[in-house]
Amino acid sequence: MISTLTSTTLENEMDLILAYKKSIRIAELIGLAISTRTAFATAVSEVCREVIDKAFDGMLSIGISMRDGRFVLSAHITANVDEHFRVANDGFDYARRLIPTFTSTLQSGLVEVGLHLKIPLSLRVDQMKIERIKDDLHLEGPINAYEEIKLRNAELSQQNVETEEALMQSTSLNKQKNEFISMASHELNSPVTILLSYTQLAKRLDEGKEGRMTEYLNKIHQQSEKMARLVKQLLDISKIESGQLNYNMVDTSFREYLEGVFDSMCMLVPRHIVHVDVELDCSVTIDQLRIEQVITNLVSNAAKYSDPGTNIYIRCFMSEGKPWVEVRDEGIGMTTDTLQRVFEKFYRNQDLKNKYQGLGIGLYVASRIIADHNGNIYASSRPGKGSAFSFSLPLGGTS
Asked: What's the CA angle centered on 352, arms 332 and 389, to 5 degrees?
């Protein structure tokens, strides 16, 4: 069993100097005579020279081990080598003459060298002294500027490795999550569609009757539509993540298009007062269904987070050469943290989760649709004072 006091990679001539200085310093802290320190450090550096010159991925470890009931100063050197490497070389031979116990093995492209020097009993080495030497080395820090840079580079390299591993794990988990969302949403889509169809059929058969059955059918239909919207959002997430959210882009008279979309807004939020102001007349190139999806989401959210009977303002205008659509409400507003994260996938304010239903998908999908149209989407808000969402689109064709 060896108590490692220091270790370093062997890459270039600067590491040769580092190996020598470290060997000298550890032998000094143990209390060895100057001549013994020098012999040990020279032997270590000679082996390291051969490794640096003729091998690769070299590593030096220096520590104190127990051999035959005695504490021993040990250096352990390993490296990968090719078929031309020989353990019978000048450096190894010289080190063998300097150190009483020298071992070397070469197997399967790996060379291992051990240098062992018995520590005199008079130096009273024990586990407590070994720990003190470790503490001293730690407090002293790097021997020279080169080691300081080397340690810093090693630290940064390790951080990069850990970051890459975390990224790979995150990517893998994200892929699995997206695959699950895709599979689940596709599996849910068919039964939800069938449920809606049968509900509509049942309502037609029950048409003209005012009773408990009609009430139940209306509730089933409302909940089925809600589930259908959620499934559609999950399908959109799946398509976005896989890069398969396709668009049917057409040149559109924006004013006419918006007026057509807004005709149904009062039906979408019947318990709120909707004000529409269209101040623009231009042409845009859009996927009409997708932009309607964005507007519908913004208006639905405005109604969701504001009291019945309050106002929802929809304003369409030109600013800085771009057409804008703004949806503003008189609702609960958003905190600064929510405002910064409102377009994140699956984000929901912790305090509102139990009071307001949702998956935190709609605004994320809306933001991606607008981004894919080369537009911009923004949010502004004050707690208790309502929120405003606005998006811009680039002009298309002629106005």
From this structure: 45
Return all residues near 39 (Cβ < 8 A) that are at least 6 apart.
98, 99
- Say which amino acid occupies 280: L
Strand-pair partners of 385: none
pLDDT digits over 71-90, tens only?
Answer: 999 999 999 999 888 888 99
CA distances from 20 to 17, 136, 167, 243, 376 (A): 5, 18, 39, 57, 62
pTM here is 0.51
d(CA 228, CA 33): 84
Amino acid at 376: N
- Between CA 96 and CA 106 the distance in angstroms is 16
Q: What is the dihedral of CA 137, 141, 143, 146, to 10 degrees?
A: 140
**Token pair of 298 as six digits:** 């913004």
Are 30 and 74 a contacting pair, CB within 8 Å?
Answer: no
